[in-house]
Amino acid sequence: MLILHCPCCGIDADETELTPGGEAHLTRVGPDTPDEAFEGYLFMRENPRGVHFERWRHAYGCGKWFHAARCTVTLEVFGTYPAQTAKPPADLLQTISDKRPGWTWRDLA
């Protein structure tokens, strides 16, 4: 079972209390962008075998959104942080690099 720490209310919640929200740190596009950019925003998502950054909502708790970094293969959770954060915290990136040398994910690595 997947257990994530909600950084907003401080509770460790299992996946039945949470709602997944898809990939984190997407670049939003505006109404004046070309169709190709809008298509990329809607449909093109990372689906890595390994480290992945995701959005989660503590649905049956505080109701707030947060981000989680986890491994999609082992379900190991590297850490969570508030959704208002534009990039993952440096200490979290360092933790991931220590455990998974050579990992990459977009421009975050």
From TrEMBL:
It holds the Pfam family SoxD. GO terms for biological process: tetrahydrofolate metabolic process. One of its GO terms (molecular function) is sarcosine oxidase activity. It comes from the Bacteria. InterPro entries: SoxD, SoxD_sf. This is Sarcosine oxidase subunit delta. It comes from Pelagovum pacificum.
